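Practice problem 4.
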């Protein structure tokens, strides 16, 4: 039963009979009544004053009287200035709960074969280092946005572009070749991405030593950088890679494979995945072809040094370099090539790039260029621009090895969850296997929820200790509430309590119970809003509010010990549906909820 639609239809009928008008549906503004007033829905009457030719209070009173007389769902009303607060009959809310209870996929839409196809790009790591805290926010946002778009009825392709070429990759390769002594992930016992990352840091350390020595000999910083034998070796290695040198390409393949194995393990632990992975080494040549096509069509132009540019001054931007004078590509070229391959692979209707806000200009330019090059979705591509994530200690730097490694952070979160759970006695009755499973779900749930509850467009500071709290707006608090409801339902089953269909004759339901049902009924609108705004935070904060309200209900009302069988059954069914929505909403965030805790 869509109560809002039902009330809107009744309001429309009242306006026709009172004032002879048929306003647009958007003019009928229904809101959830504020907690300080009596009512469930509030109608804003200001849009109808021109037709009524009366004061806001008189207009609201007239509409309220007609609704009370003609719509059985309305039990009473009150007027506060230009706002009509409507109180709905308890039977209406029982009907709403019954509809929620019988809909297993409540809140989400079915994906059909002809639904829009949306591609979401996230992760985009470099193969010279392991994933870090910044990547965690990117991956969690990308995965959650994909799930939310699916829940809104879209077909979704989750994709990743791996930056597996360039000078930064050669730095790790050269350092391994010079100082690695043939070490491998197997011989060192290290994950491959960590091992390669160590050599990236080592290169930077040796390079800085070299610069310091050259500057001590009287060279300027710029002269030292130009003369650095190490950096020149790295550049030579890159030239050899681009010309297909067998030895260099062989080492590149070997070390990249180490990194991919490491990434796969991290992605699996984090609970994210991809439908298709693209590699920059395969896309940049395609990008060069598309740019040269654009040159032939007059979309781009060349300078005296042979470099290729796009003039975007007509769009209010500047001139953008696409190919250097030596023919090598820039990031923009690679993104054009990746777009071409993706469009060849899939009939994409919309493309969403989950990339940090430092790339806002890049995607503004990319959108214009893709549109000029004939990609149908180019003009409307979505750059989901999110803020940076930092630690209380400040920013992180990959070259200096001061990043917070993703694997280490996940391990720390699980260890902290174990410590906190043991202190609170939450693992006392668990086997070792159950305890291990619970602390993993809790630790990762804490990490994911803490990151996803924040408006994604804002910068944030991640505090591991704060995120594990079993009280307040945290993942563990929500997970614990879910486990509490599941325990309640198990106890009811063990006691032989059968939960039949809801009995519509139950009329003794409290304001708190009605408020919970109304909160549940908002879930489809919340999922739709999260999809429209590309914001997992909308889901996260809705679930927290629902859980907070349920815990107040659980504290104030008897459930299993309620003597009235019909009311007891109603409260158990209400609890079951709160659990269902918690599980669904947390699932859209990529967070598991435990059956026991």
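Answer key:
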């Amino acid at each position: 039963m869509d109560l809002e639609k039902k009330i809107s239809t009744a309001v429309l009928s009242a306006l026709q009979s009172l004032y002879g008008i048929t306003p647009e549906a958007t003019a009928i503004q229904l809101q959830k009544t504020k907690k300080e007033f009596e009512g469930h829905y509030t109608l804003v009457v200001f849009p109808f004053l021109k037709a009524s030719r009366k004061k806001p209070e008189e207009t609201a009173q007239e509409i309220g009287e007609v609704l009370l007389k003609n719509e059985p769902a309305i039990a009473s009303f009150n007027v506060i200035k230009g706002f009509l607060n409507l109180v709905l009959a308890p039977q209406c809310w029982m009907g709403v709960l019954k509809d929620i209870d019988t809909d297993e996929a409540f809140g989400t839409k079915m994906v059909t074969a002809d639904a829009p196809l949306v591609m979401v790009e996230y992760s985009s790591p470099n193969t010279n280092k392991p994933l870090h805290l910044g990547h965690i926010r990117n991956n969690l946002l990308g995965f959650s946005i994909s799930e939310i778009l699916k829940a809104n009825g879209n077909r979704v392709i989750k994709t990743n572009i791996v930056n597996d070429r360039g000078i930064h990759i050669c730095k790790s390769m050269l350092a391994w070749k010079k100082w690695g002594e043939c070490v491998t992930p197997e011989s060192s016992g290290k994950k491959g991405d960590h091992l390669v990352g160590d050599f990236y840091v080592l290169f930077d350390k040796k390079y800085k030593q070299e610069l310091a020595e050259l500057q001590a000999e009287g060279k300027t910083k710029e002269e030292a950088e130009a003369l650095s034998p190490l950096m020149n070796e790295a550049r030579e290695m890159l030239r050899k890679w681009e010309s297909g040198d067998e030895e260099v390409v062989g080492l590149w393949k070997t070390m990249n494979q180490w990194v991919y194995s490491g990434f796969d393990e991290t992605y699996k632990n984090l609970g994210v995945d991809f439908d298709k992975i693209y590699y920059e080494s395969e896309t940049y040549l395609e990008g060069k072809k598309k740019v040269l096509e654009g040159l032939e069509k007059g979309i781009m132009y060349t300078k005296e040094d042979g470099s290729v540019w796009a003039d975007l001054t007509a769009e209010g931007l500047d001139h953008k370099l696409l190919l250097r004078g030596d023919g090598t590509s820039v990031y923009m070229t690679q993104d054009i090539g990746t777009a071409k391959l993706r469009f060849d692979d899939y009939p994409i209707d919309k493309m969403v790039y989950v990339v940090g806000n430092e790339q806002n200009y890049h995607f503004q330019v990319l959108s214009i260029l893709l549109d000029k090059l004939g990609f149908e979705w180019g003009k409307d591509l979505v750059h989901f621009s999110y803020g940076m994530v930092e630690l209380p200690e400040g920013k992180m730097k990959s070259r200096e090895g001061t990043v917070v490694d993703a694997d280490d952070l996940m391990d720390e979160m699980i260890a902290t969850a174990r410590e906190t759970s043991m202190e609170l006695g939450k693992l006392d009755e668990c086997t070792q296997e159950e305890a291990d499973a619970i602390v993993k779900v809790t630790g990762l749930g804490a990490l994911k929820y803490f990151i996803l509850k924040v408006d994604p467009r804002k910068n944030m500071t991640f505090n591991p200790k704060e995120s594990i709290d079993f009280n307040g707006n945290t993942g563990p608090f929500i997970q614990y509430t879910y486990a509490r409801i599941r325990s309640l339902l198990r106890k009811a089953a063990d006691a032989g309590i059968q939960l039949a269909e809801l009995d519509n004759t139950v009329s003794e339901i409290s304001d708190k119970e009605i408020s919970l049902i109304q909160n549940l009924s908002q879930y489809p609108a919340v999922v739709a809003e999260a999809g429209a705004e590309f914001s997992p935070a909308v889901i996260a904060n809705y679930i927290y509010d629902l859980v907070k309200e349920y815990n107040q209900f659980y504290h104030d009302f008897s459930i299993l010990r309620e003597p009235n069988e019909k009311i007891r059954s109603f409260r158990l069914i209400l609890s079951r549906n709160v659990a269902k929505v918690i599980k669904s909403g947390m699932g859209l965030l990529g967070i598991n909820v435990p059956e026991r805790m």
